[in-house]
Amino acid sequence: MSEVIALVPGTFDPITNGHIDIIKRAKKIFDKIIVAVATNAGKMPLFSFEERVELTKKVVETDRELWGVEVEGVKGLLVDFAKRENAKVVVRGLRAVSDFEYELQMAFMNRRLNEEVEMIYMMPYIKYSFLSSSIVKDVFFNGGDISKFVPEVVIEAMRKKLSERRG
Ligand code: COA
Predict the structure, then answer these.
(1) Ligand 1 within 6 A of 122 CB?
(2) pLDDT mean over 62-69
(3) pLDDT at 1 over 80
(4) Catalytic residue list contains 127
(5) Tell me, what DSSP letter sits at residue 123?
(6) Active site residue 112
(7) pTM exceeds 0.70, yes or no
(8) Which of 11, 45, 87, 121 could form a disulfide with 5 if both were Cys (CB 3.0 to 4.6 A apart)?
């Protein structure tokens, strides 16, 4: 049987321990994982596209359990990227019922665009079910401790952003 390649897509602004949990779960099941750092038309990210790709790569390099995972920046449609990479599966995390409607909408649209790609949903560890990139940014920029929610390299990148902002 040929290897099953799965994409784990997201804006990753920034990547959090919740995303990492999903990537690790997917890694146990699929032969190859590509983390697809993409663009969400509805978001104004804190980190640029290039910064998000670089930061996600750094996170993968610094976590042994993620070794072997590829990270790619994706411009354009996710399903087109999936086709180019011969990926048949897209994995997303479902934290709560509130994620469902948004995910359902994306799943139907992706299927409409490419019937070949199957969406698969995984539940993160409960302690990450309340986590989001926005909440991490909010806590950090208001002086809170985010060390339990993101890896050290992400904290460093956030500190850098903060000092750039302060000029
Ligand atoms: N743990 C923690 N947080 C999680 C999570 C998890 N397991 N799963 C989702 N989240 C959070 C994220 O932190 C993020 O929080 P935020 O809204 O505060 O930033 C939010 O849930 C979802 O963001 P993320 O996981 O980064 O992905 P996204 O929903 O922004 O991703 C794309 C959407 C990029 C996959 C989608 O826009 C896409 O496919 N873009 C490419 C273009 C395309 O094909 N468009 C058509 C799509 S139908």
Answers:
(1) no
(2) 97
(3) no
(4) no
(5) P
(6) no
(7) yes
(8) 87
